[in-house]
Specification:
By secondary structure, this protein is an alpha+beta fold. It has helices at about 15-25, 30-35, 70-80, 85-100, 125-130, 140-145, and strands spanning about 10, 40-45, 45-50, 50, 55-60, 120, 150. It folds into two domains: about 1-60, no CATH class; about 80-150, no CATH class.
Length: about 160
């Protein structure tokens, strides 16, 4: 699985893991280096613009203190990543208008101008119906790959 990983970040690890991971970090870092990382220290092998760079080490920030106040967590999230409701609704309307303008055969809206996004896969029940033998051998094949469009996207304004 490590062959498919682009950027790697390693915190202190045990010998077995360090020996496997060290192959990706050699010759700059060894298994002992990976086992000896301190608190908040990391070893990283970043992928930038599709190219993996030389390994390096760094330090992370400690986690903030835990909170049990759900409303405080929601408010903090709202401040960091929230957008005004009017902005969200305007963006959705722009997407609907763009989907309607480009609507045509083979699009996710299939001529309705109402839906956009991924198509929903057929349920197992409908696949069973289409796979049943019938007098026309191609009847099941014609509907087998058909997709049901998703309903319009909804947004939660913060």
């Amino acid at each position: 699985m490590l062959g498919t990983v682009r950027s790697q970040i390693v915190f202190q690890c045990q010998r077995d893991d360090a020996e496997v991971l060290a192959k990706s970090y050699q010759p700059r870092l060894t298994a002992n280096d990976l086992m000896g990382l301190g608190t908040y220290e990391i070893a990283i092998r970043p992928s930038v613009s599709g190219q993996t760079l030389a390994p390096l080490t760094g330090t992370t920030l400690p986690l903030p203190s835990a909170t049990r106040d759900g409303s405080a967590a929601a408010e903090g999230s709202r401040k960091r990543v929230g957008r005004p409701r009017s902005e969200v609704e305007a963006a959705l309307e722009a997407r609907r208008a763009a989907a309607k303008a480009t609507d045509g055969p083979g699009t996710a809206t299939s001529g309705t101008g109402k839906n956009f996004g991924r198509r929903r896969k057929e349920s197992k029940a409908s696949e069973t119906k289409t796979n049943e033998p019938s007098g026309d051998s191609q009847a099941g094949d014609a509907t087998k790959g058909a997709a049901t469009p998703l309903p319009p996207a909804t947004a939660i304004a913060i």
